[in-house]
Amino acid sequence: MKQSFFKIQTNKDAPHDEGSINAELLVKAGFVKKESAGVFTYMPIGLRVLKKVQHIIREEMDKVGMQEVLMPTLIQKENFEKTKRAGVDVAFETDRNYILGWSHEEIITPLAKQYINSYKNLPIAFYQVQTKFRNEPRAKSGLLRGREFIMKDGYSFHATKEDFQEFYEKVAEAYFEVFKRAGLRSYRITAGGGDFSKNISHEFSVITQAGEDVMIYCEKCGFAQNTELGEITSCPKCNSTLKKDKCVEAGNIFDLGEKYTQDFDLKFTNEKGESIYPYMGCYGIGVSRLMGTIIEAHHDENGMIWPKTVAPFHVHIISLDQNEKASEIEKILESNGIEVLVDDRDERAGKKFADSDLIGIPLRLVVSKKTLEQDSVEWKERSSDEAKMIKIDELTEEVVNYIKN
Ligand SMILES: [Zn+2]
Questions:
Q1: How remote is the CA of residue 249 from the centroid of ligand 1, in Å?
Q2: What's the confidence (pLDDT) of residue 13?
Q3: Among 344, 288, 356, which Cα is nearest to 129's?
Q4: CA of 236 to the centre of ligand 1 (A)
Q5: Domain 313-404 CATH superfamily
Q6: Which end of the chain is more exposed for a tag (fewer CB within 10 A), N or C?
Q7: CB 98: neighbour CB atoms within 10 A?
Q8: How far is the CA of 220 from the centre of ligand 1 (A)?
Q9: How far apart are CA 295 and CA 194, in angstroms?
Q10: Is 124 helix (H, G, I), strand (E, B) or coil?
Q11: What is the whole-number distance in angstroms between the Cα of residue 215 and the centre of ligand 1?
Q12: Would you state the torsion angle of the CA atoms of residues 153, 154, 157, 161, taken in this order, to the nearest 10 degrees?
């Protein structure tokens, strides 16, 4: 993809009112445009990242056996009245009849009635990736806390609590995998159910200075706890010294019990012939928040440093008056499955390098008269300060190896 076509509108002025790195860098690099507090447009390059994050989440949810659906954002208020959640202050009401969805138990539970009559229909689980709305009074911190944001929410129905618990653990493992693939180390924290339920729930938190929560954690074995739950200094699991840091909640999983199946009178016939309520769980990941969290965890003073798995492109070719050769290399790499952005703009070198650092594509290749005299390009990884020359003959294999590992 040529930058002369694929416009990236970088901005000198970053918003300082957001008080977070992700907002500053995303706006500066032209990944998003801030429309109002907590409301953003994803620009072409930003949308590429968002889609990659979504793809990872979809793959992991599909693996645990959830089926993707797409529910409406407009939810009848009467559904929320059934669950006594109509008046909650996070809800955006459009008129007397509708609420903009901030959670979807009120749609999925009546919907599941179509599938569930007998224990033979269970377990069954659905998820969606969709826009959610929350009337957030403190919308700030860029993508970390929005009024309109993208979320993955999943819901499962089970014949027994034991079956639910087994599935719940499978989802927890899938969550660790999602965050790992997105370049983040996450910690699982036991939490109360809050507004959702009085049953047990877990948060998946990532350490970042932009976080609003604080946790104590063990880097060695992964033990983590909310600081509210008491001050301890050594890990109760492995005895290592615990650390304390700010963190952001990237995902959560809830035991919903029978609350919603009772509210919507969703019953099934069990093996004994009794008509009972299925056991339910729900599973959330803030997709756009995750994108913001990745930046909080991966950046330096010059810009973003995307992990290869979610980077908008794999390779950034900087052409210094060598557009023809750059285009040749682009085509060869692309035919090998590498996503390439070529800076073929009529700009000075300094501006091209600064923009490249800001955008944060993992691998930068410079094609200039000087490098071509050696039949080479200059190779520099965004996460490293070192640059080296590499022969064009060997380039494709090297790039493919680098991106795949
Ligand atoms: Zn430990």
A1: 20
A2: 77
A3: 288
A4: 7
A5: Anticodon-binding domain (3.40.50.800)
A6: C
A7: 18
A8: 5
A9: 28
A10: strand
A11: 14
A12: -90
31 vs 218: CA distance, rounded Å = 34
Contact 128, 104 (CB under 8 A): yes
**For the chain, what are the domain ranges?**
21-300, 313-404
CA of 242 to the centre of ligand 1 (A): 8
CA of residue 239 to ligand 1 center, whole Å: 6
Residue 382: pLDDT band (50, 70, 90) is very high
pLDDT digits over 313-340, tens only? 999 999 999 999 999 999 999 999 999 9
CA distance 12 to 90: 34
Cα 224 versus chain centre, distance: 21
Q: How far is the CA of 221 from the centre of ligand 1 (A)?
A: 4
* Centroid of ligand 1 to alpha carbon of 173 (angstroms): 18
| CATH 3.10.105.10 for the 21-300 domain, yes or no | no
Contact at 8 Å (CB) between 359 and 303? Answer: yes
Q: 238 C-alpha vs ligand 1 centroid, how far in Å? A: 4
Classified as helix, coil or strand, 232 is coil
> 202-212: per-residue pLDDT in tens?
999 999 888 88
Q: What is the DSSP letter of 52?
A: H
CA of 234 to the centre of ligand 1 (A): 8
Ligand 1 centre to CA of 203 (Å) is 18
Q: What percent of the chain has pLDDT over 90?
A: 82
Give me ligand 1 centre to Cα 217, in Å.
8
Tokens encoding 253 = 């999983």
Question: What digits encode the pLDDT tens for the residues 216-272?
Answer: 999 999 999 987 786 778 999 999 999 999 999 999 999 999 999 999 999 999 999
pLDDT digits (tens, 9 = 90+) for 92-105: 888 889 999 889 99
120 burial type by CB count under 10 A (0-12 exposed, 13-18 middle, 19+ buried): exposed
Global confidence as pTM? 0.95
Ligand 1 center to 169 CA (angstroms): 20
Residues 314 and 403: beta-carbon distance below 8 Å: yes
